[in-house]
Backbone:
């Protein structure tokens, strides 16, 4: 048994662990696919028994044939087969991503074999996608079916209040859209948040679909159309510049804030840090942000400090403070726990330590004026 465990464990180092990107050393493997996987992904593999048979590297028995199969295949060889032709814009999740993204990534590779042949026609590669998504009402909070239409030719996303409507309720240009999965916030495992700018205000749309495959197809279709727009708008851009496509928020959660005079009572608000845009909402599912602030770089006089300035007035319930220093003023926040405080400081620091791009310099003035009006 000891020799068997040593033999299987030794294969981990030789075959790689790309199956669960950036995960810790895997303790599980698929004896039928010949890949090593983490605990989280092992549960997904178990739900596809016709494709993958999961075994523990330490607790299960491996016969000689199975060990040799792992030695012959492994993650690198399997990746070369099942990930041979992944579209550049297709989102490849890591072990930190939500369940629906990881499950559909695994099913797309091994069950549907979407990436084994070049030029394969897939639901997110046509440049047009039309279908029903359940959308949360802006005022009543109810999720109702709405028809959505995504068009590469028009470069926009539309939705209609009725399936037979000729005119869309909204039509949003693809270059101002972001999409990120938010199952916990929306309260649905397939929840997707679509964010865009409307009249210089951040607008949130919360949707879901009962099918995990369908909602992930929508997500990758949006990325596909965005990538097409990027290549047309910036012809010299390389295929690897996918960072301009959809992005996850750097940090979200509750903090308390005070007003510009710093004497007002602190109020609990939901905050979202989307790179250099810090937005706050009264409720996490609000359609519009109540205010935004631009977070610049250290070379322009921005910094984040632990704690509140001495002599800070105003009532606050939470006692783990932090201060955002800008060239114009200081913004004061409090967090419920020290862990929250340190996480927010780390998120702000990661942004402030990055040099600003020319586009960010241009947007700085807009966000500054907007924050003065809304804060």
Residues:
């Amino acid at each position: 048994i000891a020799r068997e465990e040593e033999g299987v464990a030794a294969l981990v180092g030789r075959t790689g662990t790309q199956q669960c990107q950036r995960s810790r050393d895997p303790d599980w493997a698929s004896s039928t696919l010949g890949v090593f996987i983490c605990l989280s992904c092992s549960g997904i593999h178990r739900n596809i028994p016709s494709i993958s048979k999961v075994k523990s590297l330490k607790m299960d028995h491996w016969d000689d044939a199975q060990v040799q199969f792992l030695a012959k295949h492994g993650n690198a060889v399997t990746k070369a087969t099942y990930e041979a032709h992944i579209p550049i814009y297709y989102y490849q999740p890591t072990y930190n991503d939500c369940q629906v993204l990881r499950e559909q990534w695994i099913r797309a590779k091994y069950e549907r074999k979407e990436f084994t042949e070049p030029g394969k026609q897939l639901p997110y590669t046509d440049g047009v996608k039309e279908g029903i998504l359940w959308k949360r009402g802006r005022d009543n909070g109810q999720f109702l079916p709405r028809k959505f239409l995504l068009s590469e030719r028009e470069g926009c996303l539309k939705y209609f209040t009725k399936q037979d409507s000729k005119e869309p309720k909204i039509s949003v240009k693809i270059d101002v859209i972001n999409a990120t999965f938010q199952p916990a916030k929306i309260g649905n495992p397939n929840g997707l948040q679509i964010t865009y700018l409307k009249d210089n205000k951040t607008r949130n749309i919360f949707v879901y679909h009962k099918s995990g495959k369908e909602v992930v197809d929508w997500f990758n279709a949006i990325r596909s159309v965005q990538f097409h727009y990027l290549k047309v708008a910036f012809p010299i851009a390389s295929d690897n510049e996918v960072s301009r496509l959809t992005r996850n928020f750097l940090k979200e959660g509750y903090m308390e804030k005070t007003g510009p005079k710093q004497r007002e009572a602190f109020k609990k608000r939901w905050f979202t840090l989307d790179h250099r845009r810090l937005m706050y909402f009264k409720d996490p599912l609000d359609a519009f942000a109540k205010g935004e602030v631009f977070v610049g770089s250290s070379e322009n006089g921005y910094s984040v400090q632990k704690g509140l300035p001495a002599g800070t007035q105003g009532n606050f319930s939470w006692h783990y403070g932090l201060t955002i220093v800008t060239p114009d003023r200081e913004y004061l926040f409090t967090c419920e726990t020290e862990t929250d405080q340190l996480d927010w400081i780390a998120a702000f620091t990661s942004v402030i330590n990055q040099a600003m791009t020319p586009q960010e310099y241009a947007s700085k003035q807009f966000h500054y004026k907007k924050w003065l009006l809304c804060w």
Residues 1-5, 14-19, 369-373 have pLDDT under 50 and may be disordered.
